[in-house]
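Researcher: I'm preparing a figure for a lab meeting and need a structural model of a single chain. I don't have an experimental structure, so a prediction will have to do for now. The sequence is pasted below. Please return the structure as tokens so I can convert it later.
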Amino acid sequence: MSDHQPGLRQLLIADAIRHRQLLGLHAIGPGIKLWVGMLAPRFAPVLLHRLAHRFHRGPLAPLAKMFSLINFLFFGIEIAVASRIGPGLFFPHTQGTVIGAFTIGENAVIYQGVTVGAKDLDFTYDAAHRPCIGDNVLLGAGAKVLGGIVLGNSVTVAANAVLLSSVPDNVVVGGIPAKILKSRNVE
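Model: Understood. Here is the structure written out token by token.
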């Protein structure tokens, strides 16, 4: 993920486009359909996180906590307001998901029951203790990604895997503890 973070509007547009692509819907047009789509149970948690992250520093920090709490109460997902998450975030389901990554790149797909965060009690919130996740990553249902590790681009973490060490680009990992199961040839 690059150091430049797009603005809130650009992130939400990219998220909405990605959702519609993954759900097999037609291109986004102006009007009410876009706004109704933002209230869908797969998109609303993304919207709430984007708002929480936007307001987490500065005088509106209490709003960030409110958005985060709404996400937890209504969708069963806990996302740290400080997590920097690139455009195209998609949650097919949200219940029981905990996201405390330092960064997550573009076009991440995160299934239910996933935990991404520190291995131990950590309130410093830095890359030495929390995962940095690349672009186009899929985290399967129940996967655990813990510690100050780096996941490369185009990584798939299998369902219920426990990943405790860094992995390169273009691999599938699985097991407890997770190991590389397959490398993808990319041309």
